[in-house]
UniProtKB/TrEMBL annotation:
GO terms for biological process, alphabetical: isoleucine biosynthetic process; L-leucine biosynthetic process; L-valine biosynthetic process
Gene that this sequence comes from: ilvE_2
Domain of life: Bacteria
Reported cofactor(s): pyridoxal 5'-phosphate
Originating organism: Rosistilla ulvae
Listed name of the protein: Branched-chain-amino-acid aminotransferase
Length: 285
């Protein structure tokens, strides 16, 4: 059976899930989205994702045409319709069809799309051996231009940086902010371990405030690992004992090299492994 997509509250086969070519989501990246995971049939941190979706929409003056309760129900119904227990959910709200001009007031019908599918996981070798990163020359969006805290459909900034990573043979690339400090990767937040302290760029570093990032900070506190949200530079990563990335799809993935330099002893570190194990326990609670 074909994948069932939720389009404005109606479940339709993927072939029939169509939106207008005049949709400003397509024409201008005008819209917001979320990427979520379901584990053992339950959507991980659904409330946090809905909070972030509403914040993103508010930041771009997009009024969501659905209640929070209904959207949560529709996400669960889409998972159920596709018999997905462990999977990935993409929640998208576009500005809707308008004219060819930019004016968002011409778009009167925002489109709500929910795609639930099997997750294509990173290969296990990434977790066993760790990733290599390069620093992209493309900086993360300046917060005064388009705040990285808005999870908007405009991901061109990250896509260009991702291309730089791929050209260098890396699946992820490190992005700096307009000040030259570490922001995040193209689709993941970044952490280091420095002499037993877990450090990650603060929200004012120009990052998306990742749901996994926040969960990992909480786990670390429960495990008695000191945490700091702060300004980090590339130097901090070069001299770190451990480094890892977090994201809904990647979960917690070790990083062992940045710009051809080994981080720590060049192998996934013990605190990274502890946090990954604790994260795996948390998601199945
Ligand atoms: N940063 C960016 C740019 C992302 O796209 C993502 C993935 N949504 C993340 C960080 C990680 O966020 P989360 O843990 O909420 O998936």
């Amino acid at each position: 059976m074909s994948l069932q997509i939720s389009l404005n509250g109606q479940l339709v086969p993927k072939e029939d899930a169509k939106i207008s070519v005049f949709d400003h989501g397509l024409l201008y990246g005008d819209g917001v989205f979320e990427g979520m995971r379901s584990y053992a049939g339950k959507i991980f941190k659904l409330d946090d994702h809905l909070d972030r979706l509403w914040d993103s929409a508010r930041a771009i003056c997009l009024e969501l045409p659905i209640t929070r309760e209904q959207l949560a129900e529709d996400c669960k119904a889409t998972l159920a319709a596709n018999n997905i227990i462990d999977g990935y959910i993409r929640l998208i709200v576009t500005r809707g069809a308008g004219s060819l001009g930019l004016d968002p007031n011409r778009c009167t019908n925002p489109q709500v799309i929910i795609i639930a599918d099997k997750i294509s996981l990173y290969p296990s070798e990434y977790y066993e051996n760790g990733l290599h990163l390069v620093t992209a020359s493309t900086i993360r969006n300046h917060p005064a231009a388009l705040s990285p805290r808005v999870k908007s459909l405009n991901y061109l900034n990250n896509i260009i940086a991702k291309m730089e990573g791929l050209q260098a043979g890396c699946v992820e690339a490190l992005m700096l902010n307009h000040k030259g400090d570490v922001a995040e990767c193209t689709g993941d937040n970044v952490f280091i371990v420095d002499r037993g302290v877990l450090k990650t760029p603060s929200t004012d570093s120009g990052i998306l405030e990742g749901i996994t990032r926040n969960a990992v900070l909480e786990i670390a506190e429960d495990l008695g690992i000191p945490t700091r949200e702060m300004t980090l530079t590339r130097h901090d990563l070069f001299v770190a004992d451990e480094c890892f990335l977090t994201g809904s799809a990647a979960e917690v993935v070790p990083v062992v090299q940045l710009d051809n330099r080994p981080i720590g002893d060049g192998k996934p570190g013990p605190i990274t492994k502890r946090l990954l194990e604790a994260f795996h326990k948390l998601v199945r609670q």
